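Milestone 3.1: sequence recovery, worked example.
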């Protein structure tokens, strides 16, 4: 029994090593698709909060709290997909400046993480005015980075 547990643990440990090595070899095209997917999901969960804080649809605290929680996690996901190996691909709206001004890009991505965490906290507190203010700050963080680093279409 003990040996089985030990072997299972070993399998998990070596599996982790393999998947780490595999992720080091992810194709640039795949990195682009993944980061775009993370961005698209941010749009999906951000939009309805906006409609509610602007009074376009009735405020639903449960949906706001859920969406803000998703956003807090999604806001961490896109960044490791922005690797220099993707800079020359066509199927991306990411500007090559990302890889030349990487400190600026990193600070704008961290800003988004900070602001989405504040939005999630505001949503949990149930204070609609705080949610509204935090929503605006998240929107600013999205826009600032898109203005600097995303190609306009
Ligand atoms: C630090 C920079 C940065 C921040 C912050 C940021 N984005 Fe983006 N976003 C990008 C870049 C760069 C792209 C283009 C990615 C690509 O095409 O490879 C993008 C693309 C997108 C797309 C298009 C995805 C697709 O399907 O191609 C959506 C939607 C989007 N962002 C929504 C958001 C929302 C909503 C927020 C805020 C909650 C946000 N972004 C914050 C940099 C950022």
């Amino acid at each position: 029994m003990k040996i089985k547990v030990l072997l299972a643990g070993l399998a998990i440990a070596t599996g982790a090593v393999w998947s780490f090595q595999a992720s080091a070899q992810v194709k640039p095209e795949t990195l682009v698709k993944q980061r775009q997917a993370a961005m698209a999901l941010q749009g999906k969960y951000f939009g309805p909060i906006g409609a509610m804080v602007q009074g376009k649809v009735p405020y639903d605290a449960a949906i706001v709290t859920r969406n803000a929680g998703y956003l807090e996690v999604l806001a961490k996901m896109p960044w490791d997909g922005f690797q220099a190996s993707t800079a020359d691909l066509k199927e991306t709206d990411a500007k090559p400046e990302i890889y030349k001004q990487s400190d600026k890009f990193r600070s704008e991505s961290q800003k988004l993480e900070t602001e989405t965490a504040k939005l999630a906290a505001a949503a949990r507190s149930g204070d609609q005015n705080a949610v509204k203010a935090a929503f605006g700050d998240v929107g600013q963080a999205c826009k600032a980075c898109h203005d600097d680093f995303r190609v306009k279409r």
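The chain has one domain: 27-149. The chain has a mean pLDDT of 91.
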